[in-house]
Amino acid sequence: MSLDPSRLTIVRHLLPISLLPFVVIVLVPFWLLSSYPSRFSPNWVLQLAGLALFIIGFMLFVWCVGLFARIGQGTLAPWDPTRNLVARGPYQYVRNPMISGVALMLVGEALFVPSLALLSWSLTFMVINHLYFIFSEEPGMEKRFGESYRSYKASVPRWLPKVHL
Fold first, then answer.
1. Can you spell out the DSSP letters for 6-19?
2. In the chain, how many H helices and how many E strands?
């Protein structure tokens, strides 16, 4: 009995998603909300804004995972990184749109609940990733992709797109 290659590809992508973003977006927030219940009454405007941010972040995340699979020939996991530099779609505007998508989902959750604990977790997640990208991810990308990454890095901002007036 042989395994279907398409099933292996699906498992290859679902495993990192279930281990990394699922923990960040579902398990940690669940623990935080269980440990530090919200003391604020919901506000429908904040909840609507939170829902919108969560949906936008989720769509951005899914788009990026698809680009990693199709163009990058890899996954979001550090143990199975892309084989090709991905510089299309949202990656042509910022270098880390997948993390931006996850951050938008976290802020969306924090507004939807509302929860200062989740908002603090969102900020902590962003700081951790900022440091990780500076000290680990970007040097690793330079080693893997050389001059093409250095050129990309010089022309595309890390987090916020350039505004052209």
1. HHHHHHHHHHHHHH
2. 8, 0
pLDDT lower than 70: segments of the chain: 1-19, 165
Cα–Cα distance for residue pair 29/58, rounded to 1 Å: 16
Contact 109, 52 (CB under 8 A): no
Nearest to 122 by CA among 93, 113, 158: 113
- Residue 40 has φ and ψ, to the nearest 5°, of -110, 145
Q: What is the pLDDT of residue 121?
A: 97
Distance CA 34, CA 115 (A): 11
Q: pTM value?
A: 0.86
> Which residues make Cβ contacts (< 8 Å) with residue 63, sequence separation at least 6?
89, 90, 97, 101
